[in-house]
Amino acid sequence: MFRFGDVYILFFLAGIPVLYIVYFLYRRNYKERLKRFGDSNLVAELMPLKSNSKPFIKFSLLMFVMVLLIFALARLQFGTKLKEVKREGIEMIIALDVSNSMLATDISPNRLDRAKQAINTLIGKMKNDRIGLIIFAGEAYTQLPITSDYISAKMFLSSVNPEYVSKQGTAIGEAINLAVHSFSPSENSSKAIVIISDGEDHEGNAVEAATAAKGKGIKVFTIGMGSQLGSLIPKLDGTGFLTDKNGNPVTSRMSPEMLSNIAIAGGGEYFTASTSNVGLNKLYQELSKLDKAEIEMQKYSEYDDQFSYFIWAALIVFIIEVLLFERKNKWLNSIKLFD
Q1: Which residue in 164, 173, 176 sits closest to 200, CA to CA?
Q2: Are 203 and 169 in contact (CB under 8 A)?
Q3: What is the 3-state secondary structure (H, E, C) of the chain?
Q4: pTM score of the predicted model
Q5: 223 dihedral zone (left: phi>0; alpha: psi -120 to 50; beta)
Q6: Residue 58: is it exposed, middle or buried by C-beta count within 10 angstroms (0-12/13-18/19+)?
Q7: 246 vs 209: CA distance, rounded Å
Q8: Pairing relation of β-strands 251-252 and 140-147?
Q9: What is the mean pLDDT of residues 141-165?
Q10: From 69's CA, which of 53, 99, 199, 227 has a CA 20 to 30 Å away?
């Protein structure tokens, strides 16, 4: 298996035929000028050591040197061995609330979009860690299994909206339980769950679920999206605001007490989000403190540059070209190596 490190250099090979054409035109012009000088037989007798083939051989050797140098500059590479790379990091699962209340606009543009922007930024800071994504409202679903494919994580995140979960509510406890069972079986890597929600838990078992997660060595962090003053909840179709059974507009208020209690029970920390700050820097600092462990071993073929062989070959051919005189050698003339 081979490849070229700078394949565009190979385009210079197209110049070799052009140089040959120029050379043949030059040789034809040279012969015509000799004919004008005098009779060809007489000229041959005046220059007995003149070789007709050596100039072409020397020119071809120079062209071969150019070809070798072009291959050297193009950095021909061969796969020579498998190289193992160890990656150390943590495993993190983000549980994102996609209930209708996350459409409230007390955080611009709304709670859900701001949360997605924050997660996207967090993924951009990750290097060797693995990430998973769970979405929840009245029920919890795995949106992205634990992975180190950050591009896929951003792609799945971009498409998340409240329509993904038909049952409304805020089942934080169910989301935590699902996250606990979504980590890889490895017991070495540190594991963390990040809950991003407005804290309106309608199920009531979130603290117990966080406590159980802590007992398994999994830390639970929470980020509160919204304000305590609250905001009306826009309808998905943009025709107004959600109302209760009596027809009154529903105001959604963030519950910091609930989210703080979940974080304390889970051995993590609670962060409050705002339009300008989602608590990501502090969260990332806390996550970076977790013990890193070997979470993945990658093997790939390592390609080695082979340009040095072409350089040496070009040097040898060039020396041969220099030592090869255009005139016939009087000692080798009798052997008839060259005409």
Answers
A1: 173
A2: yes
A3: CEEECCHHHHHHHHHHHHHHHHHHHHHHHHHHHHHHHCCHHHHHHHCCCECCCHHHHHHHHHHHHHHHHHHHHCCEEEEEEEEEEEEEECEEEEEEECCHHHHCCCCCCCHHHHHHHHHHHHHHHCCCCEEEEEEECCCEEEEEEEECCHHHHHHHHHCCCHHHCCCCCCCHHHHHHHHHCCCCCCCCCCEEEEEEECCCCCCCCHHHHHHHHHHCCEEEEEEECCCCCCEECECCCCCCECECCCCCECEECCCHHHHHHHHHHCEEEEEECCCCCCCHHHHHHHHHCCCCEEEEEEEEEEEEECHHHHHHHHHHHHHHHHHCCCECCCCCHHHCCCC
A4: 0.62
A5: beta
A6: middle
A7: 34
A8: unpaired
A9: 91
A10: 53
HSE-up of residue 86 (Cα within 13 Å, Cβ side): 4
User: So where are the chain's domains?
Assistant: 2-80+303-335, 91-291
Instruction: Output the CA torsion sign for 5, 6, 7, 11.
Output: negative
Reading the block at residue 172, the tokens are 């934080």
Q: 165: which 2 tokens?
A: 């979960």
Q: Taken in order 143, 149, 154, 159, is the CA torsion positive or negative?
A: negative
Q: Domain 91-291's class?
A: alpha beta
Residue 133 pairs in a beta bridge with 94, 144
Q: Tens digits of per-residue pLDDT, 223-277?
A: 999 888 888 989 888 788 988 888 888 888 888 999 999 999 999 999 987 665 6
pLDDT tens for each residue of 11-24: 999 999 999 999 88
Written as six digits, the tokens of 24 are: 């043949």
Average pLDDT for the chain: 83
Joined together, the tokens standing for residue 336 give 């008839």
The residue assigned the tokens 């020119």 is: 59
How far apart are alpha carbons 292 and 67 in whole angstroms?
50
Which CA distances in Å does 226 have to 4, 104, 256, 271, 285?
Answer: 54, 8, 9, 11, 22
